[in-house]
Amino acid sequence: MKNNVNYAYLKKELPHLEHQINRFEYMNQRKQEFNVVVYGKYNHGKSSLLNALLCKEDHFKAEDKRTTTENATYVDSTTGITWIDTPGLAADVAGKDDGHANSAVTKEADLILFVHNVKVGELDREEIEYLTRLLQFKKSSQIILVLTQQDQLKSDQFEQVFNNISQQVESLNLIKICVSQTRYFKGIKNDSSNMLQRSNIDELKKLINQKLTDFNQVRSEEYKDLQTTISTSLEAKGMEISTMKLHKLEELKNIHLNLQIDVQKLIQKIQQQF
């Protein structure tokens, strides 16, 4: 199924699997790169998180106003990781920004960092829906819920928010980690190992590096799952078409039989009259 695949035909015949087919096509056509996509609502700290992970404070624009309107990519040749910063969700009324972000997570992502700013409280309804939809295309092990700005809350406030969020996503079985980009860069500036440790950025890097280590196996499993899903759906579609064909043939047969009966009745009636 890997070679000479007509993806346009697949998407036409299996529209409910459009995202999976796009991902399957991407995996067949692109090199073995490990893509980490940062995803979440507007102004929750996605770009500043990426800057911390890259240790480049100003690489990705991180401002209060909406600046990221298309996917931005950084290829780290040292680690082999391709970092993708996506526009904030629900910020563009036209939905164009969301289209770019959703394309990145469904087609390109090997690992998704779903970012939520704990300063605003627990996850809102839209964020829960985003996470639920992601799990239709990705395994929970391919998503890390990153809670940012933990330094902006008092310890008791943060504990309450964290507990609420934990209850919200309990059934989703996601990895969760709390970080502070502000503490991280202050730690670098002041050469403070304590502040660096409290930022939890290095812990997040360890999690990502572990995913990178498991990358080939996880991608192979994902590829096989996609192949099975598409093949099974095609077979089901073929059976559906065959069944419809049989029904149509049966209908035609009954029409032909009824027509013969009607013709015979008409002939008999004419013969009686003459």
Give a topology summary:
Elements: H1 7-13, H2 18-29, E1 34-40, H3 46-54, E2 72-76, E3 81-85, H4 96-108, E4 111-117, H5 125-134, E5 143-148, H6 155-168, E6 175-178, H7 181-189, H8 193-199, H9 201-213, H10 215-273
Parallel strand pairs: 1-3, 1-4, 4-5, 5-6
Antiparallel strand pairs: 2-3
Helix pairs in contact: 2-4, 2-10, 7-8
Description:
With 274 residues, this protein is of the alpha/beta class. The chain has a domain at 31-213: P-loop containing nucleotide triphosphate hydrolases (Rossmann fold), CATH 3.40.50. It is built from 10 helices and 6 strands, in the order H-H-E-H-E-E-H-E-H-E-H-E-H-H-H-H. The chain has a 6-stranded mixed beta sheet, with helices on both faces. Helix 7 (181-189) runs antiparallel to helix 8. The longest helix is centred in the C-terminal third of the chain and has 59 residues, at 215-273. The mean pLDDT is 87.
Terminal-residue CA separation: 68 Å
Instruction: Report the mean per-residue pLDDT as an integer.
Output: 87
What is the helix/strand order?
A: HHEHEEHEHEHEHHHH
CATH fold-level assignment of the domain at 31-213: Rossmann fold
Indicate the CATH architecture of the domain at 31-213.
3-Layer(aba) Sandwich
Secondary structure tally, helices: 10
- CATH C-level label of the domain at 31-213: Alpha Beta
Radius of gyration: 27 Å
Strand-residue proportion = 5-15%
Total strand segments: 6
Contiguous runs where pLDDT drops below 50 for at least 5 residues: none
Q: Main sheet, how many strands, which sense, barrel?
A: 6 strands, mixed
- The CATH homologous superfamily of the domain at 31-213 is called P-loop containing nucleotide triphosphate hydrolases
- Helix proportion range: 55-70%
Strand order of the largest sheet: 2-3-1-4-5-6
Structural class: alpha/beta
**Outline:** elongated
